[in-house]
Amino acid sequence: MYSYLLPEFIVERREDRCIACRVCERQCANDVHAYDPELERMVSRAEACVGCQRCAVLCPTGALLIRPHPAEYRPNSSWTREKLQDLKKQAETGGVILTGSGNDKPYRIYWDHLVLNASQVTNPSIDPLREPMELKTFLGRKPDTLEIDLDNGGVKIESALHPNVPVATPIVFSAMSYGAISYQAFQSLARAAKEAGTLFNTGEGGLPKEMRAAYGGNAIVQCASGRFGVDPEYLNCAAVIEIKIGQGAKPGIGGHLPGEKVSENISVTRMIPRGTDALSPAPQHDIYSIEDLSMLIYALKEATNYEKPVSVKIAAVHNVAAIASGMVRAGADIIAIDGLRGGTGAAPKIIRDNVGIPIELALAAVDKRLREEGIRNKCSILAAGGIRCSADVVKAIALGADAVYIGTAALVAMGCTLCQKCYTGKCNWGICTQDPYLAKRLNPEIAGRRLVNLLHGWSHEIKEMLGGMGINAIESLRGNREHLRGVGLAEWELDVLGVKGAGE
Amino acid sequence: MLVKRCFASERRLPAKESEACGLFGVMDITGKRFGGEMAISAMKNIKVRGNGLGGGFAVYGLYPEYRDYYALHIMFQNKMAKEQVESYLVENFNIVYDEEIPTNPDVNLFCPPLVWRYFVAPKKKGEEQALSDDDFVVSRVMYINTSIEDACVFSSGKDMGVFKGVGFPEEIAAYFRLAELYAGYLWTAHSRFPTNTPGWWGGAHPFSILDWTVVHNGEISSYGTNRRFLEMHNYYCTLFTDTEVMAYAVDLLMRRQGLPIEVVSRIFAPPLWDLIEHMEEREKKLYSTLRMVYAPLLINGPFTVIVAHQNEMFGLTDRIRLRPITAGAKGDLVFLSSEEAAIRCVCPDLDLAWTPRGGEPVVVRQGSRDHLLSLPESV
Ligand code: SF4
Ligand code: SF4
């Protein structure tokens, strides 16, 4: 515990309700609550509380109220409480401040400044409950044109096609590795992806052997800078292979899974000795240039007999459009772009909060650049980082994405409350932890069901929005920025988004 | 098209126009030529589908005596435009004959421009000799349309021509004296009900490139997606109408890529995934590949289109049939229209009339009875 710090949260217990059942004590991995036998009542150490709300939700009598600590320093717009507290922590430890989940700073969220169109009079809206409405999407490289053979009355396709992977709805679970998240959480994602006909992403921690047969077909397997868990079977059991260059929450930064978390099963899956730190270097040390990327892309294609699309995931950085264009030319079939608000299991706070650009602007710029170069259909675009609801999905697709990655939204569906303490390994919701006592709180059957429900709910909403626009197939929305208008945006922002202002 | 217009941001692109329209087409499948009376009376019959802001006709088999030359119908808003165009034509073509298209000055129309026709053969120089005649003509026509102010090429095909302008179709027909002067084996006609458009003769339909003409009714909700895909194939929209997008898509798929209408109609109006799932293996592969590759050319939202070119005409409506199309046949004559009434009005004793399924093309070809293929599944 740090000295000189104000607690972040305050724990209020209504004594008239508390029955000292000690549920809160058992639920809190941060040891906030304890039973005092002498006083015969529960006591709390608020300074250890991270505000995950686990105890408050599970308290059978609703006796607990956890809220941000109201104590304030003298108000100062420049030296905020957060800045002061961070300074004090560093003064005490001399270290880098770590954090989890995504950037929580008030950068403009463009989704909230974009509004959608609907049909009136000149064009009928379509009721998705009565009319077909199609969300199926193919991820992968498409040829420019098709050679078609028309001999003897039949129509036959002559062109050789690149591998493409269908998803039933344009929502894919983004990379969360086994190690960063619990086996249970990892399995929940896999189950949900399979049931909903979409994909999950293994992240860089490998795919446990016993899951390969059942869930490989719905897996995007990552090949990241640490190369953990990469073997031929891993690559060949998957639907898609993804080379991870960067991550929105920490562009330019590697990863570090501490040795304590490298349990037997994780060590086998990652193919590293038990108890050793799993260090992912910041760059891939065999990729120092675009040609190197191309070599790795083709090495992976060779290893999988050109049967799988290869995705390359980058963080949205300043010249993202030019980089994306290079990636497509280097042979990437899918490019995944992770924006400023993308989540993480652990990242230096200073990086998470200051590096990268918003996904909306990055996506618009990439889609435009690829179209200008005539190579947009040579790849699919997956947009990631800060997709919070179905409207964000629709807006992303209208800006040019083929599909979106959701990470944080999926975690929240499983129980996460964005306490940002994923890096501590003490996730009270059993998601970001390897502690068996905590992890078993998450039942893959139930969490998987919640994820499937989420996908269903969003898909229904997407259909409603499409129907309103008079569109009955998602592909007719892709890059269709005519269906977007900006509200409260500056000229340059509208220009970058390629979207007219409302009323224009 | 083919001339890239640079806007600092896509945000600056003009908004798309929206409109609703009446369509009619008639073809004699033996190639016998006939006058414009049917097309004109059909358009009169469906007057409510237009509002007098645009009407036009495309006629095939129009200039048999010049059938080897490209017939350019060009409108000029002033003399200067004409001079500019003519010096450009002389540079690029051998002009074998030209004249003003005769008009009837007694018909009172809004700002009629000067409309002239030229019969030309390409004069290709240097590297351009590698270009096909068609591609050469397309590039020259696009140059005139985008770069010479106050001039617009109505049509540029062989043995065909487009007559169009601001007014009801029957007024346009009277103005250009269609009924008295011309005959053809295929006529299509269009009446327009734009919701926001300045009266400009070049903006009326049929829309045409080479001998392809498109008349279209609808409001395409996939416009932005379609337009962006076409841009990648060097078609740059200048009119910002759905019809323009349709015409370019037809040109790309049919003329440049040589796909038959049976395939193209499955690109514009593809079968639903649920249906594809239940097809036999070969078809399944064909249709899912078409959908996958040409997804950006799915035409979404309500539309009916009649496309014509040399010896062929076809009609198609969107896959959930949000706009009507009716086909009719009598002897060697085949009709297509947005309204059955228009067909019955000009041919009361039809042998057959049918409404094809959404996404099912009616293909009318010279010397064939392919149009009947859409009959068994009609609604
Ligand atoms: S950390 Fe979570 S479980 Fe513990 S006291 Fe705070 S809110 Fe409750
Ligand atoms: S995953 Fe767990 S630790 Fe991480 S933010 Fe969510 S609740 Fe907190």
Secondary structure layout plus pairing:
The complex is a heterodimer of chains A (504) and B (379).
Chain A: E1 9-13, H1 23-27, E2 33-36, E3 41-44, H2 54-58, E4 64-68, H3 81-93, E5 98-99, E6 114-116, E7 137-140, E8 148-149, E9 156-157, E10 164-167, E11 171-173, H4 183-196, E12 200-201, H5 209-215, E13 219-223, H6 232-236, E14 240-244, E15 255-257, H7 264-270, E16 278-280, H8 290-303, E17 310-315, H9 320-329, E18 334-338, E19 347-348, H10 349-354, H11 359-372, E20 380-384, H12 390-399, E21 403-406, H13 408-414, H14 436-439, H15 444-469, E22 484-486, H16 491-497, E23 500-501
Parallel strand pairs in A: 11-21, 12-13, 13-14, 14-17, 17-18, 18-20, 20-21, 22-23
Antiparallel strand pairs in A: 1-4, 2-3, 5-19, 6-22, 7-10, 8-9, 15-16
Helix pairs in contact in A: 4-15, 9-11, 12-15
Chain B: E1 19-28, H1 37-45, E2 55-60, E3 70-76, H2 79-92, E4 93-100, E5 114-122, H3 133-147, E6 151-155, E7 160-165, H4 169-175, H5 178-181, E8 186-194, E9 207-209, E10 212-218, H6 223-232, H7 242-256, H8 261-268, H9 273-277, H10 281-293, E11 303-309, E12 312-317, E13 326-330, E14 333-337, H11 340-346, E15 352-354, E16 362-365
Antiparallel strand pairs in B: 1-8, 1-14, 2-7, 2-8, 3-5, 3-6, 4-5, 9-10, 10-11, 11-12, 12-16, 13-14, 13-15
The structure holds iron/sulfur cluster (2 copies).
CATH H level, superfamily name of chain B: Aminohydrolase, N-terminal nucleophile (Ntn) domain
Mean pLDDT of chain A: 95
Radius of gyration of chain A: 24 Å
**Largest β sheet strand count, sense and barrel closure of chain B:** 7 strands, antiparallel
Number of strands of chain B: 16
Q: DSSP helix count of chain B?
A: 11
Mean pLDDT over all positions of chain B: 90
Structure description:
The complex is a heterodimer of chains A (504) and B (379). Chain A is an alpha/beta fold. Chain A has helices at 23-27, 54-58, 81-93, 183-196, 209-215, 232-236, 264-270, 290-303, 320-329, 349-354, 359-372, 390-399, 408-414, 436-439, 444-469, 491-497; strands spanning 9-13, 33-36, 41-44, 64-68, 98-99, 114-116, 137-140, 148-149, 156-157, 164-167, 171-173, 200-201, 219-223, 240-244, 255-257, 278-280, 310-315, 334-338, 347-348, 380-384, 403-406, 484-486, 500-501. Chain A has 2 domains: 9-95, Alpha-Beta Plaits; 137-141 and 167-477, Alpha-Beta Barrel (TIM Barrel). Chain A has 16 helices and 23 strands. In chain A, the strands form 8 sheets. An 8-stranded parallel beta sheet of chain A has the order 11-21-20-18-17-14-13-12. In chain A, helix 6 links the parallel strand 13 (219-223) and strand 14. In chain A, helix 4 (183-196) crosses helix 15 and helix 12 (390-399) packs across helix 15 (444-469). Chain A starts with 8 loop residues before the first strand and ends with a strand. Chain B is an alpha+beta fold. Chain B has a single domain, classed as 4-Layer Sandwich (Glutamine Phosphoribosylpyrophosphate, subunit 1, domain 1), CATH 3.60.20. In chain B, 28% of the residues lie in helices and 26% in strands. Chain B contains 11 helices and 16 strands. Chain B has a 7-stranded antiparallel beta sheet with strand order 7-2-8-1-14-13-15, with helices on one face. Chain B has a 5-stranded antiparallel beta sheet with strand order 9-10-11-12-16, covered by helices on one side. In chain B, strand 13 (326-330) and strand 14 form a beta hairpin. In chain B, helix 6 (223-232) crosses helix 7 (242-256). The two termini of chain B are 38 Å apart. The model of chain B has no long low-confidence stretch (mean pLDDT 90). Classes of the chains: A alpha/beta (504), B alpha+beta (379). Chains A and B meet through strand 9 and helix 16 of A and helix 6 and helix 10 of B. Bound molecules: iron/sulfur cluster (2 copies). Residues 11, 27-28, 30, 32, 49-55, 66, 428 of chain A line the site of one iron/sulfur cluster (SF4).
